[in-house]
């Protein structure tokens, strides 16, 4: 079956290591990502937030559960959706590429099964979410902390 793909990227005025720490710390996402809930349901191995970790994120009554599938510090984190959104076989990867010692490039790519009209709607929703997440990440990492 065909897949829908959504991606976005941004240059962040912060070192790769700073951005990695923000991305890798699932519970810390509520500080910068706009979530009211960000918890670790299950620890990963060998890193607490690493492969196998199950994270819960949400705003209000909307909660999603994600499992970390790849954890390559300081440049790549992948996860899959376990529950919470009306989409099938959702996978996402965040890549952080160093530009210099003060800046990095963050890419966020997601894909999921194309199941018709709902997947078309979800593609638009996810595009907005990724764009907003990158803006918030960039602002927080660069010191604006708003």
Notable features of this structure?
globular; about 150 residues; 3 helices; alpha+beta; Alpha-D-Glucose-1,6-Bisphosphate, Chain A, domain 4; 7 strands
Q: Could you tell me the radius of gyration in angstroms?
A: 15 Å
| Termini separation | 41 Å
Order of helices and strands: EHHEEEEEEH
What count of helical segments does DSSP give? 3
Question: How is the biggest beta sheet arranged?
Answer: 7 strands, antiparallel
User: What is the class in the CATH system?
Assistant: Alpha Beta
Strand content range: 35-45%
Q: Class by helix and strand content?
A: alpha+beta
CATH topology: Alpha-D-Glucose-1,6-Bisphosphate, Chain A, domain 4
Query: What percentage of residues falls in helices of 4 or more residues?
Result: 25-40%
Shape: globular
**Number of domains in the coordinates?**
1
Can you tell me about this structure?
With 146 residues, the chain is of the alpha+beta class. It has one domain: START domain (Alpha-D-Glucose-1,6-Bisphosphate, Chain A, domain 4), CATH 3.30.530. It is built from three helices and seven strands. It has helices spanning 16-24, 29-32, 117-141; strands spanning 3-12, 37-42, 54-59, 62-72, 76-83, 91-100, 103-113. It has a seven-stranded antiparallel beta sheet with strand order 1-7-6-5-4-3-2. A hairpin with a 7-residue loop joins strand 5 (76-83) and strand 6. It is globular and about 45 Å long.
């Amino acid at each position: 079956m065909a897949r829908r793909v959504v991606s976005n990227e941004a240059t962040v005025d912060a070192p790769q290591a700073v951005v990695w720490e923000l991305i890798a710390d699932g519970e810390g996402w509520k500080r910068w990502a706009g979530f009211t809930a960000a918890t670790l349901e299950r620890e990963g191995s060998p890193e607490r937030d690493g492969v196998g970790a199950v994270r819960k994120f949400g705003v209000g009554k909307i909660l999603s559960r994600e499992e970390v599938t790849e954890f390559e510090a300081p440049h790549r984190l992948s996860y899959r959706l376990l529950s919470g959104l009306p989409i099938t076989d959702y996978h996402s990867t965040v890549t952080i590429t160093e530009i210099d010692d003060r800046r990095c490039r963050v890419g966020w790519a997601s894909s999921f099964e194309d199941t018709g009209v709902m997947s078309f709607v979800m593609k638009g929703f996810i595009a907005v979410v990724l764009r907003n997440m990158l803006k918030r990440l960039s602002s927080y990492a660069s010191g604006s902390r708003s």
